[in-house]
Amino acid sequence: MSDLLSVTRAMELVLGYAGTFGTETVDLEMAAGRVLQQTIRAERAQPPYDRVMMDGIAFRYGSDLPLLSHGTQRAGAPGQALPEGAACLDVMTGAVLPEGADTVVPVERLVRDGRMVRFEDGYEPRQGQFIHRRGSDCAAGTELLSGGRRLDGPALAVLAGNGHAQVSVSRIPSIGIVATGDELVDVGGPVRDWEIRRSNEYALTGALLSRGFNCIERSVVPDDLPLMMAALREQLSRHDVLILSGGVSMGAFDHVPRALSKLGVERVFHKVAQRPGKPLWFGVGPEGQRVFGLPGNPVSATTCGVRYVMPMLLAGQGLCRGKTHAVRLKAEAELIPTLTRFLPVRVGHDETGQAVAIPYPMPTSGDFSFLAATDGFVELPRGEGMAPRGTVALFHGW
Ligand SMILES: Nc1nc2c(c(=O)[nH]1)N[C@H]1C(S)=C(S)[C@@H](COP(=O)(O)OP(=O)(O)OC[C@H]3O[C@@H](n4cnc5c(N)ncnc54)[C@H](O)[C@@H]3O)O[C@H]1N2
Ligand code: MOO
After folding, report:
1. CB-based contacts of 16: which residues, under 8 Å, 6+ apart?
2. What start-end ranges are recorded for coiled-coil regions in this protein (predicted)?
3. Rounded to an integer, what distance in angstroms lies between the CA atom of residue 237 and that of residue 293?
4. In terms of CATH architecture, what is 324-397?
5. CATH level 3 topology of 56-132
6. Which atom of ligand 2 is nearest to the CA of 274?
7. 276 lines ligand 2 (CB under 6 A)
8. Average pLDDT for residues 329-338, to the nearest whole number?
9. What is the mean pLDDT of residues 171-191?
10. How confident is the model over 295-311, as pLDDT tens digits?
11. What is the ipTM metric for this complex?
């Protein structure tokens, strides 16, 4: 058994610092994808009046035929009264049902002769048909949305339909992504034989943006302790969360833990019993900044970002579930006796519709090209031998 921190315990520690990033009020236009932080109740009964559901005529069920049409009840106009006798009013979908009418017949069932109206041969309306009754969806004051949910299209429609031009949502934290490493060069510039282009920041940016975290600053610091400290001091002053990549293992220039500690960032843990990503570092800054030191290898940085950083950020928004669900392994997969294994997979479905994961073992945790062929990874507990085909595992999507 490994005496390193387990993945479960490391995650508990991270979530223990998730807290909240506060709330803010935004215009409805800007609320899509945000996490609601208030209870929304029905402004009025819904629908607010007996609503005509078909273009046609409204009449009193049982009236003698033919009916005499006395005019038109349009949508957006106050309700009219249906005259006594064999009478009807032309009605439009969405109009108020005329007072005294109780049944609607669609226009395609009508035979008209001037203002006289009868039904097509053999047509028998049911009393009360095609009327959406006042309050049948909900009574005024009914709870329609509760806090802690993402605002998708239907939820935005509920907000709009109940008069919420502004809405209280979780504040999106400000996030600094900091790359470390003297070998790293920018995406747009020249690259020499001994250098590599920075890519981890973009894997992290993709994961963040696809979860709605759009307040991101990317920067790079050199493998030099004083320069790194100056840059990290500045970054700590600007952001709620720092996600560093690289510089957390045992190399002579892996200054990240030392620099953070000198800046008063308290280490919560360093190293977790997992592969990839064993050198993961997590701490909390003097102002409560959450600071992740992700191992620099691209597969490790990407995996740890999804496994630890994203759940913490989502929890801070009041959401408990990210892009995770159970899958069955489509092929056996090798376990690691002392470490939790994060195994990249593609996700598909079997003939019964169940989600299955096809393992894509990475040759090394540097192979980020290969990672782009996968949808995410499954989490396999430490163990001997092989996890057989059909094993149920938790999948985490990129
Ligand atoms: N003696 C030991 N050496 C290493 C250990 C160990 O336990 N003992 N752990 C290994 C593991 S596991 C990992 S993962 C790496 C993590 O190292 P660092 O976090 O210090 O990362 P670096 O050394 O700075 O970089 C590793 C690798 O990743 C590339 N990299 C870094 N940043 C980026 C970026 N932004 N975009 C793309 N690629 C990046 C970097 O060039 C290196 O190739 O340590 C092992 N060593
Ligand atoms: O995180 Mo390291 O190998 O486990 O790349």
Report:
1. none
2. none
3. 17
4. Beta Barrel (2.40)
5. Molybdopterin biosynthesis moeA protein; domain 3 (2.170.190)
6. 4
7. yes
8. 97
9. 95
10. 999 999 999 999 999 99
11. 0.96
Pocket residues for ligand 1 (CB within 6 Å)? 179-181, 183-184, 196, 198-201, 245-251, 254, 276, 278-279, 295-298, 300, 365-366
CATH of domain 24-45+137-170: 3.90.105.10
Q: Does residue 360 sit in helix, strand or coil?
A: coil
Does any ligand 2 atom lie closer than 6 A to the CB of residue 200? no
| DSSP characters over 275-323 | ES-TT-EEEE-TT--EEEEE-SSHHHHHHHIIIIIHHHHHHHHT----S
Class of domain 7-22+172-317: alpha beta
Average pLDDT of the residues in 239-264 = 93
Residue with CA nearest ligand 2 atom 5: 365
pTM value is 0.91
pLDDT digits (tens, 9 = 90+) for 105-143: 999 999 999 999 999 999 999 999 999 999 999 999 999
Strand partners, 325: 395
Q: Output the six-digit token pair for 136.
A: 């049948």
Half-sphere exposure of 10 (CA within 13 A, CB side): 25
Residue with tokens 């387990």: 6
Asked, as a colleague might, if the bond just before 66 is cis with ω within 30 of 0, I would say: yes
Residue ranges of the domains in the chain? 7-22+172-317, 24-45+137-170, 56-132, 324-397
- Residue by residue, what is the 3-state secondary structure of 147-210? CCCECCHHHHHHHHHCCCCEEEEECCCCEEEEEECCCEECCCCCCCCCCEECCHHHHHHHHHHC
